[in-house]
Structures are given as C-alpha cells and as structure tokens.
Amino acid sequence: MWRSWLAYASGGRVVGSSSLLTPTMRKRRNKRLGFGLVNSVLALALVVATFVVTQTSALQYLKGKLADGTQKSMMAAMVIPGNARSGDIKPLVTLKNAVKGRKHGQLLVKTGYVSYFNYDRNNPDWVAWELTSAEAHGRLDRKGYEFVSDNDLPMANRVAFYDYKESGYDRGHMCPAGDMKWSAAAMHDCFYMSNICPQVPELNHRSWERLESACRRWASKMGSIYIVCGPIYKRKTPEYIGVEHKVAVPDAFFKVVVCLKEGNEKGIAFYYENTDANQPMSKALRSIDQIEKITKLDFFSELPDNVESKIEAMADFESFEGKKR
After folding, report:
1. Per-residue pLDDT tens for 29-74?
2. 223 Cβ partners below 8 Å, 6+ apart?
3. Of 69, 139, 214, 301, which residue is the least packed, with the fewest Cβ within 10 Å?
4. Minimal CA–CA distance to 262: which of 76, 80, 77?
C-alpha cells in the first residue's frame, strides 16, 4: 500500500524502485495531468486577455492626455526634439501647465483635453489639447452623443444642457467634436457642459467652424499641433443666461495654435467677436502675444525663452496655411 501511494505521489515510479503504477492509478495520473493542461491553457488565456485589456486601457489613458508630469511615457508632452543634448531631452510643457493664470475655479482633465473651469462664470477659462494627424482623420460619428453635466464639478457649477434653453445662444464647443473623432471616450467627454460656452449661432456655424476645420488641416500637414482656446470678457459685468445655473456670455473668443516640430516651430492666434458678423480668418488673425495681453494668460511658459518668444510674436497665416484668407 505504501509503495503504491509513494508511486502515485512521485509521478508514477516508486523512488529507488522500478515498480510502475497500476493501470488504474496510471489512468488517474493521466486524468490529473489532463486537467492540469486544461487549467494551464485557461490560465494562459486569462493572462493574454488581461494583457490586452490592460494595454487597451493604457493606450486610452495615454490618448486621454492624463499627464501628471512625472513620466515622459505618461504625459502629453510638448517636446522640442534636439532642444537639449542627445539623451537629455525632457518634457517641457504638458497640457496641464500649458497655460498660466487661473482664477476661482478647477482644473479638469478629460479624455483628449485639459481645461480650467471658472466657478464665477460657469465657463472654462481655457481648454487645451493636442491634435495629431491621425486624430484629425478620426471617423467616429458624433451622432448619438448628448450634452451632459460634468459631475467632476461642485453641484452649484454643474451646468445642464437646459440652461441654454431659449437663450438665443448655441452650446459652443471649445474643444470641438470634430477633433475628438478618434475615440468614443474623447467624443463623450467633449460634450461635457464644462467644455461649452454660449456662442452666437452664426459664429458657431460659420467663422468658428472654419477655424476648427483649418486646425485639422494643419494637424494633418504638420503631424501634430497644440491648441488652446477660450472665452474673452470685455465687460466687467457680462450678460448671463441660465435656468438653474447662471452662465456668462463671452464677448469674444480666442484660439492659440502652435507647432513644435523641430526646426519648424511656429505659432498663430485668432480673435473672434461673439457676434453674427462674418469674420474672415485674415481679419481675426492675431499673435499669441496679443492674445496674452487681452486675456492676462501666459501660454507655453515652460518652453525655452527663445522658442517661446519666437512663436508668440508670429502672426503669419501663410506659415500655416500656405496662402492668405
């Protein structure tokens, strides 16, 4: 008996003996090995599935630009290659610190963009995002996505879609749906009301939309651009709309665009009145320096001074488009 048990326990042969397992015990062993093989295959499949899900989540995380600035691989870094010695290149600007100059509000990190929401005006002060060539060619349909309140904000600031009801103003995207067609999560997040400002319909559907389309062309041509936009208030006490939440109506809007491709760093900016007037891009053209004076915001301050000074002084439409408009 003990020899049989020892044989089973030792995998089929008694230690120090040539006695083999009985046919019955050999069958048990084979059955046990069969179950072990099945379990091993299932375990391997589980590992592979976990890896795929993890990698997908990681990619979504990266595409979401959820940068904490601690690791290059975990940030949407505005990097100028060759800015430092080889092997010493470091991230210079993240979307989180692309703008300096905050008031009473909250930084919001979403899939595809970062913004700073102003509690007093219930609008974003600014919204920043990277737009790559691949993202500019996203094919996701925006149909089916609805404007939703942002639960990351305090209850008092969770503007709802009905706050714009019968106001005469469109729910104007700052980070546009057209730039977020590369991801369902990004498309969903751009419909948060924290990414919306009251816009005159004619501006939203004409001049502002033309600029959004131009940005996608530039991203396609240059490989990657960085965009910051937001509202401008010229009056000390702006007009307000809203049903349950009071939302300030901007007098104008700005958009800042930079390309940080090595050897071809450049910047451009635009200023649009929040009116129904047709505003050609050539008329709206400004330098980033001009927008900084108007908004009291500091863009791309983490860049080397010589690069920052260069791109912020530019107002050359042809350098982006190749022709005037």
Report:
1. 555 555 555 556 566 656 555 544 444 443 343 344 333 332 222 2
2. 132, 133, 261
3. 139
4. 80
Instruction: Indicate the pTM of the whole model.
Output: 0.74
Residues 6+ away with beta carbon under 8 Å from 3 = 14, 17, 19
Which one is catalytic: 104, 137, 173, 188?
173
Q: What b/e sequence results for 184-198 when a residue is b if at least 16 CB atoms lie within 10 Å of its CB, and e otherwise?
A: eebbbbbbbbbbbbb
Three-class SS state of 257:
strand
Mean pLDDT for the chain overall: 80
pLDDT digits (tens, 9 = 90+) for 228-248: 999 999 998 999 999 999 999
* C-alpha–C-alpha distance, residues 3 and 24, integer Å: 15
User: 173 an active-site residue?
Assistant: yes
* CB count in 10 Å sphere of residue 235: 10
Three-state helix/strand/coil letters over 75-140 = CCEECCCCCCCCCCCCCCEEHHHCEECCCCEEEEEECCEEEEEECCCCEEEEEEEEEEHHHHCCCC
- Cα 248 vs. chain centroid, distance in angstroms? 25
